[in-house]
Structure formats: structure tokens, C-alpha cells
Amino acid sequence: MDHIMPHYTLSLWADPDIGDATFFIVVEQANNSNEPRHETPQVSLWVEPVDGHLPRVTCDAEPMTLRNQVQFVARPYFHQRDMWRVGITLRCQAGIDEYETQIESTPPGFGAWDLIIYSFPFALLGGMWIIAVVRRVRLITKHSRQTAAQLSNASSHDREKDYDV
Q1: CATH number of the domain that 42 lies in?
Q2: Sign of the CA dihedral with 75 first, then 90, 10, and 54 last
Q3: Is 110 within 8 Å of 73 (Cβ atoms)?
Q4: pLDDT digit string, tens, across residues 115-150
Q5: pTM beyond 0.85
Q6: pLDDT tens digit sequence for 23-78
Q7: Which residues of 113-135 are buried (b: 16+ CB within 10 A; e: fewer)?
Q8: Are residue 92 and residue 121 in the same domain, yes or no?
Q9: Residues 121 and 93 in one domain
Q10: What is the residue range of 8's domain?
Q11: How many domains, in total, are found in the chain?
């Protein structure tokens, strides 16, 4: 989601898995900003449960080098599935910009079972293909044996006619 702030435009991408979550924060300078283009803001992210049963936890976002934009990554810890309040603070020479939103932490998946679950349809199709090939080979082999037997019977029948003369 994009959010326009006084000095920057903020894009937040989240993988809010229970346990170690990952947040990508893309920061672009606003067009009307008078701030020098070379300054990179300091970015921090804080999380707290919506119901307030845990205190707010703040973590600094680490900058990542990309070509045309400034991107940060933050990895907070979510202890359980819950609604969480997430805030982003941008500090620059022109001031402080803050943005707050709510997200729901999600289960991280099935772990090792993911591979089995997602590969099952491919294994099923592969098994069906192998069965079809085996049946086709058996049918061709059976047909060629029958054809060979018919040719053998026909040639022996022709030989008997030659001797009867």
C-alpha cells in the first residue's frame, strides 16, 4: 500500500508471519519536497497488539541498496496470531513523518509439509502419465504378437497347401 507523507511517499510490503515477520518499506522522495535528493531518512518500525496485552516494540529498519529507490527491511517478532498495530517513523532533516496501520499476523505455513502438499498434483499427473505409457506399450506389444502369430499361421497354412498338390 502507498501512503503519501509530507516529505516522502511510503510503500509498505509485509509478510506478517507468526514468529519472524518481514516488512519491506520503500521510500521515495515527494515531488514537492525541498530536501536534498542524496539524504536517506532514518526509518524505524514499531509493533504492538491492538488489544494492548504487550508493550510496543520498536526495531530499526536496515537499508537495502537498490537502483532507483531507497528500501528498508525490518523484522519484528509476532508471538501469536493477532491483530497488530504497525507504525513507521521516518526521520530526516526536514522533520519526522509517521504512518500507522493495522495488520493481522498469519501462520507461516505447513513447514516441510508444504513441499508434499504442493507437489502432490504434479506427482499425480506424472503417475497417470506413466500408467498411460505402460498400457500403451503393453497394447502395442500384444498387437504385434497377435500380428506375428497371424502371419505365422498364414504362412504355415500356405505351406500345407503347397504340399497337398
Answers
A1: 2.60.40.3340
A2: positive
A3: no
A4: 888 889 999 999 999 999 999 999 999 888 888 778
A5: no
A6: 999 888 776 655 556 578 899 999 999 998 889 999 999 998 777 678 999 999 99
A7: eeeeeeeeeeeeeeeeeeeeeee
A8: no
A9: no
A10: 2-104
A11: 2
